[in-house]
Amino acid sequence: MNGIANAGHDRRESGTSDRGTAPAAYWPGAWALLALVVLAACGDSSRPRVADPLAPGPHPVGVTSVTLHDDTRDRSLLTEVWYPAAESVRGLPPSPITDFVPPSFAPLLAGSTVPLVAVRDAPLASGGPFPLVAFSHGNGGVRWQNTFQVERLASHGFVVVAPDHTGNTLFDLGQDPHTQQNRPLDIQFLYDQFTGFAAEPGNRFEGWADAGKKFGMTGHSLGAFTSLTVASNDIRVGAALPMAAPGPVSRSYSAPTFLMLATEDKTIGLQLNEAIRSVYQVLPGARFLTEVIDAGHYSFTIACLTGSGLGDGDGCGDGTRYADGSRFVFTPAEMVWELVDGSSVALFGRYLNGVEAYEETLVTPVSPTIERLTADPTHGQMLLVAATR
Known about the structure:
This protein is α/β, with parallel strands linked by helices. The chain has one domain (17-388): 3-Layer(aba) Sandwich (Rossmann fold), CATH 3.40.50. Helices cover 26% and strands 18% of the residues. The chain has helices at residues 29-41, 147-155, 179-198, 222-233, 269-282, 333-351, 359-362, 379-388; strands at residues 17-18, 61-70, 75-84, 119-120, 132-136, 159-163, 215-220, 237-243, 257-262, 287-292, 318-320, 327-329, 371-376. The chain has an eleven-stranded mixed beta sheet, sandwiched between helices. A two-stranded antiparallel ribbon has the order 11-12. Strand 11 (318-320) and strand 12 (327-329) form a beta hairpin.
């Protein structure tokens, strides 16, 4: 889950707002949630109810593993898939965290307190196909490093695919000298595979992924760089949520994007945090940037609750402030998770499923005591108006 040390202002402006100081046009978080409930309950009773993006969704969650081979690159990808599951598995025991690792590594997770809900190999929920989202792990990370985020998305009706980027995981780090080139191709390969599977009669994943909708993209650290690279090169990406790293923005970039950074990130440092802010400035469409106060690099992952010691001093436990070198306690990871979860569901729900009510969540504080947000959901619309004048 390491960073990308070699990857290569006042942000209030017209059409933007800061989450910590939302203007009167944007209601505080509690009122925004109430508004979603009221909007869902009123009007045409035949309209589907809008699920609260800040809470678990209506579906139980399933998880399954599959190894796929890209013949073009002669490259195999161990891939985890989280998905909305059938009601019949509600309340069943979740797959333990040790199911994600080889047996020889299981003792390293003996002290884990990571909460999990996904039931292994559960049947798919009815009502599919479902929108497809990909998750990309960090440098030296693992496909399951953000279980809280992918499980939350699955509970809201998304199929989430997450590969181990071969040669760049915790277990084989350094074995792929071309990882920055291979990672985006891994994700595009999965997009192709799962949309193909969805239309293939008798395939294990028949009817799972909705090929008629744009895809979602999210990732952490080098996975954030991967997310921006994929969104820069693949017009099928309809929304992206990169965490804790900058990345490229091409001339053809069009995906609404929600950037996240940790103010006390010791892995990528202040310079790359500033680069994330610069990415926000050049994004051409709907754009959001949240800065999580007193969070570190690993606050966006499950590291702090694995019992492994990974993330200590950079998101877990105590840290040293950049500003004055004083000691402080990092923001609890679970608080950061709630921010990530709510923003993920709202972003992909808004831009993949077209749920306009979720825009209120995207411009309203989820946790105003620990975040600062610049939100510009109409940026792309203003550019379009200017271009047609």
